């Protein structure tokens, strides 16, 4: 889940000198920075890094930044700021249409980059009182609005109860969620629900995650409940 401690910035820039310069600049401002290494699979690296903001160059190896922005938008609402030497109106429009939040052309003033970064962070994490619609844990991404789970570029649909189970467990990662708490979340009055019904629902979640390739995601704590470690 997103926190307000140190914001993590994922820099997708294939110019090593510029990437290092951006890294040094942002670290001085107290940000945690991860520079892209896997240009042939930005999405996988994005899921591993789980950044609060992405700085995305457009002209990068394999696929361009517009492509990767669109891929990230399929699974996440994380803010994306383009940094590119392509400064035509069409490029800016294309960037916004593919899910970008802002566009900064090279060469840029470092102060402008920091100001844009601070602005998008304020809008997204500090001025917004709305609940995050995306949960991420161990490279599994759950979209609460779409009721979908994504892992290793594979996607599945979730039922209402499956979504509630995953949400409660992911929001309490590392803590045991009791069977009673889960039953109360799924049904208004758990007194009239057979506990076997909960077991069936949890097993359905496990099966769907296994089909995505995610094994042993939910651990059973006998006599207590379930936990995601």
UniProtKB/TrEMBL annotation:
Q: Which GO terms describe its molecular function?
A: phosphorelay response regulator activity; transcription cis-regulatory region binding
| Residues annotated as domain OmpR/PhoB-type | 132-229
Matching InterPro entries: CheY-like_superfamily (IPR011006), OmpR/PhoB-type_DNA-bd (IPR001867), Sig_transdc_resp-reg_C-effctor (IPR016032), Sig_transdc_resp-reg_receiver (IPR001789), WalR-like (IPR039420), WH-like_DNA-bd_sf (IPR036388)
**Residues annotated with 4-aspartylphosphate modification:** 57
Q: Which Pfam families match?
A: Response_reg, Trans_reg_C
Gene Ontology terms: biological process:
regulation of DNA-templated transcription
Specify the Response regulatory domain's residue ranges: 8-121
The positions making up the signal sequence are: none
DNA-binding region positions on the chain? 132-229
Q: Which PROSITE patterns match?
A: OMPR_PHOB (PS51755), RESPONSE_REGULATORY (PS50110)
| Name assigned to this protein | Stage 0 sporulation protein A homolog
Source organism: Pelotomaculum schinkii
């Amino acid at each position: 889940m997103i926190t307000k401690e140190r914001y993590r910035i994922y820099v997708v820039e294939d110019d090593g000198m510029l990437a290092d310069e951006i890294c040094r600049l942002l670290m001085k401002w107290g940000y945690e920075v991860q520079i892209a290494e896997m240009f042939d699979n930005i999405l996988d690296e994005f899921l591993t890094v789980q950044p609060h903001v992405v700085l995305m160059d457009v002209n990068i190896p394999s696929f361009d930044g517009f492509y990767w922005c669109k891929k990230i938008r399929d699974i996440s609402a994380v803010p994306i700021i383009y940094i590119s030497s392509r400064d035509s109106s069409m490029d800016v429009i294309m960037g916004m249409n593919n899910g970008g939040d802002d566009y900064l052309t090279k060469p840029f003033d470092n102060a402008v980059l920091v100001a844009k970064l601070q602005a998008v962070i304020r809008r997204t994490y500090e001025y917004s009182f709305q609940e995050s619609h995306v949960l991420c844990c161990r490279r599994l991404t759950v979209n609460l609005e779409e009721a979908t789970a994504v892992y290793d570029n594979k996607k599945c649909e979730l039922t209402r109860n499956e979504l509630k189970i995953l949400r409660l467990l992911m929001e309490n990662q590392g803590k045991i969620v009791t069977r009673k708490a889960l039953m109360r979340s799924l049904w208004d009055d758990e007194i009239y629900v057979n506990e076997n019904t909960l077991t069936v629902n949890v097993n359905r979640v496990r099966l769907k995650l296994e089909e995505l390739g995610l094994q042993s995601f939910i651990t059973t704590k006998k006599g207590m409940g379930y936990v995601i470690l």
